[in-house]
Amino acid sequence: MLLGNVGQQLDIGDLENAVNEMRGDVAQKDQVDREQGEEIERLKSENHELKLYLATLIRLLVSKGVLKQEEVDATVSAIERT
After folding, report:
1. For 25-81, how does the pLDDT look when each residue is reduced to its tens digit (9 = 90+)?
2. Secondary structure of the chain in the HEC alphabet?
3. What is the pTM of this model?
4. Of residues 5 and 44, more confidently modeled
5. Rounded CA gap, 40 and 56, in Å?
6. Which domain holds residue 43?
7. How far apart are CA 65 and CA 62, in angstroms?
8. Whole-angstrom distance, CA of residue 62 vs CA of residue 68
9. Per the structure, how many domains does the chain have?
10. Could you give the CA distance from residue 40 to residue 57 in angstroms, rounded to a whole number?
11. pLDDT score of 6
């Protein structure tokens, strides 16, 4: 009977260790997910800002006659086809 209790206690200890390890794994995965989500949001914001800069630059070049609107339209169409 005494050996049975010792064996049972060891099994419970092993189970507790496994549960704690799984909790740690889940916490680490959650942290990675949060960091990746934050990075995705940062990249989305940067992408949006770059689009605004590009649109402003193209409008400026067209308004100064450096580019023709037809050239811009043709380039955009070519890019969209690919």
Report:
1. 999 999 999 999 999 999 999 999 999 999 999 999 999 999 999 999 999 999 999
2. CHHHHHHHHHHHHHHHHHHHHHHHHHHHHHHHHHHHHHHHHHHHHHHHHHHHHHHHHHHHHHHCCCCCHHHHHHHHHHHHHC
3. 0.64
4. 44
5. 24
6. 2-81
7. 5
8. 6
9. 1
10. 26
11. 59
Confidence of residue 4 (pLDDT cuts 50, 70, 90): low
Name the amino acid, one letter, at 69: Q
- What is the amino acid identity at position 17? N
- Residue at 21: amino acid letter: E
* C-alpha separations of 65 from 20, 34, 57, 62, 76 in Å: 67, 47, 12, 5, 18
Q: What is the largest CA-CA distance in the chain?
A: 95
